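Example record

The entry below shows one chain as it appears in the dataset: sequence first, then structure tokens.
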Amino acid sequence: MSKNTLFSAIILAICLVLGLGLGEAVLRVKNMSMQNYDIEMWRYARELKTPSSDPALGHEHIKNSQALLQSVDIRTNEWGLRGGPVVDMPAGGRRILVLGASITLGWGVKEEDTMTALLERKFADKGEPAQVLNAGIGNYNAERYVKHFFRDLEGLKPTDIVVHYFLRDAEKLEAGGGNFFLRNSELAVTLWIAMNRLLGPQGETSIEDHYKKVYDPNAEGYKAMEASLTELADYAKANNIRLTLAMVPDVHNLENYPFTDIHGHMKAVAEGMGYRFVDLLPAFGNLKPSEVWAMPGDPHPNALGHRLMADALFPVLDSP
């Protein structure tokens, strides 16, 4: 290699590094608004999650931690649950543990406005001693949150368990984790997301097609979901724990909802296992996405959505 060629290669490398560094800096300044949903989810994975020693879980919450994500403060306690420390149950009281994923966590919603906090206040307003604990973890499915309960949360000894079930909870999830650049660079994450959206899965023309495959009884994720819910139901029966499955709707299209058949199917599955079933779809009425999304581009239910879910779920939990 001649000196001129080597010099050109060095200049090119320097320019590339400077260009990438500038791109990273510009993105970080731009994303300080906390309005980029994908980047905020990436920050959530960096700041509040840690790899799990159990490959089937993939990750878990960092305990006793806190982060400001999408302009909302999220804190975890000594159990890795969202919220403050878990105190002793009052005599004759109930401890209601809510299992689920990021909707349960209350992504984009202040802690006091989450469904779990609202439920606890409803019990307090009636003078009924009850704790409602939020075990939601982003990017979990039924297999993961049931396994997480048996591995990490059984010691809470709940009197009630609510499975806050979303359509994605029958999907098969990979452990993930990414490489060094994806873990540390907003530019790398932005480019990766753009590439995946451009070259994403082929053969699925709609979200309806996607969920049709997910709820094929022979699909690996579906079978894992059924096995997990069965295991939890057997445990609850043996330990006299009241068990409820609350079906959360997809809030992309509530006016012409395309998944009522899946809701009906899960009602049959849950009741066949001994769960009380609550369909939360009617609570949302015919709301438009702009009324119920946490922010544009983020299809997690906002504070209104959490209030609607709490209003629908409370009468069931409060009944004998």
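Notes for this example: The first strand starts at residue 49 and ends at 51. The radius of gyration is 22 Å.
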